[in-house]
Amino acid sequence: MVINFHPHALERMEERGATKDEIMATVETGEQFPAKYNRTGFRRNFPFNGKWREKFYNTKQVEVYAIRDGSDWLVITVITRYF
Asked: How many domains does the chain have?
């Protein structure tokens, strides 16, 4: 399985503080759920223990929305939550 990134996803990753490694781990081992527009969502929590936008958080949640491309995945967008 190969994980490819749409340009939109690359922009959102940088803007929202997610890394390619986190996104790949989320797709490979995260919770999977159905999403709108025939997409698949993946969710995984990571220990963070750091500052994001001047506030300290213990956990970063990465949510990935992707579509199947044969046996591969195309990541469409990425959302992060810090708590």
From this structure: 1
